[in-house]
């Protein structure tokens, strides 16, 4: 139970399966026996379906669109295999024909949610059609359901299995089995919003990401997570929808906050998600942002103080009525006592007065969002038949098994850091990722090189000789303009780190500019150079500044020469004529 972090019954059944013995059970009622047999049959059939979907991704004539999608998302073959990704081909009855050998099997396909039955229309058809398939596994690695991402124009975009005898989405976390299997002594779990966010972080060696399955993160999800780790980090978009999702997560999390547990919140720039961000800034910087995520206590007070002027007596009174009920939802313990003491200091009210506020105001409870999946998936016009096209010869065609047994040691390359890709999708391959050869540095301007270096090593600005003697940049030189902005900021904040720069940049220039800045830092050139033995970043930065100063001086000389020429030689005084001759010689 301690090693696998599971309940008593699951631990006994797991040991019995390993030892090849039957679990002795108390006498059961016939209905209990029927339910147990049904669950076992569901597990078996769902595993067969997973095998079918994985085989289609390797062999189906129309697999090329699925493989291309995975390539574009930058997934390697190893990660696809680790998470058991598959392909539900176009067509209404592929799975039905393959697994529905008799009426009993057909009934079981409907029971597991793989088959949709329309009794009034006397129709049966596959629930998942023309989709990338994501198997959902329980803590023991058994397939309990599926999620599917559409490849065509059908709706909904993401589709989950419905509630079944073995699948209850309110009590499951996608990716938790893989986190326990491949994660190296994970100490925290990152709760993200989608399957692809989980898998993209795993691609970069971060196997501790999980996702809810089309629902808000509830108490059951958090209790499941806290059985594995003591810290949970929610990762949300920074837009309104993300903030509302964070509020719902906060309200659901409060009753689970027993002493020793910690919850934090990370808000991304508008338009960003974990998938896109980790590809732009890499694992190291993504983990730095996680380290500076907002603790639950700070977020709670931020939510309670939203739109309130705390400098006024009325504002502090309203703040008390907002914050105290949230704190009352915390379990009895040291953390709750400290939170109440903190609130008393912030408001000047006594603990006795704060105890009177127990009802959470409606304003703090965000409206429930529309479901992110539609399990009904009503029938639509069958897609037109297209001529079969062979899939790519090398991609997913013959991926070897990653592991033979559930407790086998995962391959080392599953933990290797993937170099930041600068937006280009990594090629799917059967071999571990190899960093590309270092490109010539002449491809980057001195301003771009200096910008990337200062993002990578902000402290170098204080050591650089010479200093950058440029006040303004030409209108067309975006690189130099960004560099000057960054240099000005770092001169004021010499101890700033990457996440400080990102926060400043997004606040001043907006999320799109911040995203472009991240893309600068995603250059494989310097991510490769910094790992070379003997690489001197300061020397490179000095050379960049020296060249930029020379370029700026040449620009100033050209402008001065143009100004003197415009006056006319006859109108120049002796000093101006001497300067004119000097500029002519230097040009």
Primary descriptors:
587 residues, Dna Topoisomerase Vi A Subunit, Chain: A, domain 2, four-stranded antiparallel beta sheet, alpha/beta, 11 strands, DNAb Helicase, Chain A, globular, single chain, 22 helices, 9% strand
Text of the CATH class of the domain at 218-378: Alpha Beta
CATH topological fold name of the domain at 218-378:
Dna Topoisomerase Vi A Subunit, Chain: A, domain 2
The shape is globular
Largest sheet: 5 strands, mixed
Q: Helicity range of the residues?
A: 40-55%
**Which value, in Å, is the CA radius of gyration?**
30 Å
According to DSSP, the number of beta strands is 11
Binned strand content = 5-15%
Determine the N-to-C terminus distance. 79 Å
Mean pLDDT across every amino acid position: 79
Count of helix runs: 22
Structural class computed from helices and strand pairing: alpha/beta
The strand line-up of the biggest sheet is: 8-7-9-10-11
Classify the oligomer. Answer: single chain
CATH architecture of the domain at 218-378: 3-Layer(aba) Sandwich
